[in-house]
Specification:
This protein has about 150 residues and is α+β, with helices and mostly antiparallel strands. The chain is built from 6 helices and 5 strands.
Length: about 150
């Protein structure tokens, strides 16, 4: 589903991000809300999203969790390690191979993995539990990333 402004243009306030041909309409939250309503009506356990790029994960992570807690930990470590940079720079740097895990000479490859908005009560409780948060936060400490400015 592409929610794009075919007549719009990119500028300093809305820079182009990897994978974008046109600027977004700023309506993805409304679409997700509509899909969540459909899920509730169908009594589904959750809504799955697969962010193709880092910036997509950032936008959706306000309500989505990575299905695998280790992926959630890696995502949080990326945010912690690269948080001083603007979103567009981080996303392009990952896309161009300018980010690596500390101590690794190989470029970090973005992980295209499933995220979920848990809707069913027990599933919600699992992702909001202290055990889940503790596991994710502890594992996030084992990852550290750097952006190579000379490659960027």
């Amino acid at each position: 589903l592409c929610i794009q402004n075919l007549l719009g243009s990119f500028d300093e306030t809305r820079p182009q991000l990897p994978g974008q041909k046109y600027p977004g309409l700023g309506f993805s939250a409304g679409v997700v809300e509509l899909l969540m309503i459909i899920c509730w009506r169908l009594n589904l356990a959750g809504l799955i999203n697969i962010p193709e790029f880092y910036h997509n994960a950032v936008f959706y992570s306000k309500i989505f969790y990575y299905l695998d807690p280790l992926d959630q930990a890696k995502y949080l470590a990326l945010n912690r390690s690269l948080g001083k940079y603007p979103l567009d720079k981080i996303s392009w740097a990952i896309d161009w191979g300018c980010v690596s895990e500390l101590g690794d000479q190989q470029p970090f490859t973005w992980f295209v993995k499933q995220q979920i908005v848990p809707l069913e009560k027990d599933l919600k409780q699992m992702y909001k539990s202290k055990e889940y948060r503790d596991f994710v936060n502890t594992r996030a400490e084992s990852f550290s990333f750097v952006l190579d400015e000379s490659k960027y």
